[in-house]
Amino acid sequence: MEYRFEQGNFADARIVRTRVFMEEQGFANEFDSLDEHPATLHVTLYDAEGALAGCARTFPDPEHPDEPGRWVFGRLAVLPEARGGGLGAALLAETERLAREAGATEMHLHAQCRATPFYERRGYEQYGPVELDEHVEHIWMRKAL
Question: In what helix (H) or strand (E) does residue 85 lie, and over which residues does it extend?
């Protein structure tokens, strides 16, 4: 499948995240101040015809400013009509690449528990307790980049 990435298109990322996380999955608090932070990288993905298909974001971990290589990945979403073709894995790989270029050496993410096999296949390991984020169980995962 052919596709292309864009960096910094938060307007399109907002469309995907609203459809997937709010309308489909029922989250209420999808957007936060990190979306507007200058260090946050928003990555959007478009199919061969130019249609918006997915998004992700990453940023230096604000909870660990003493560890500049520690970044947080999240908000990975692929629109329902574009799923099943490996676009989620492509978005993750591209976002990791961009984070490495920006100085990341370690990526952390707060995964929905049902998605942990996806991340484990890509080298992430779980740590910490299972926690509720709104109504969905999540667990922290990490990977050296």
Answer: none
Sheet with 70-78, strands from edge to edge, namely 3-7, 41-47, 52-60, 70-78, 106-112, 136-144, 125-133
- Confidence (pTM): 0.95
Dihedral of CA atoms 70, 14, 8, 50 in degrees, nearest 10, equals: 120
Cβ neighbours for 145, distance < 8 A, ≥ 6 positions apart: 96, 99, 100, 104, 105, 106, 107
Domains observed in the chain: 3-144 (3.40.630.30)
pLDDT tens digits, 6-36: 999 999 999 999 999 999 999 998 999 999 9
DSSP 83: T
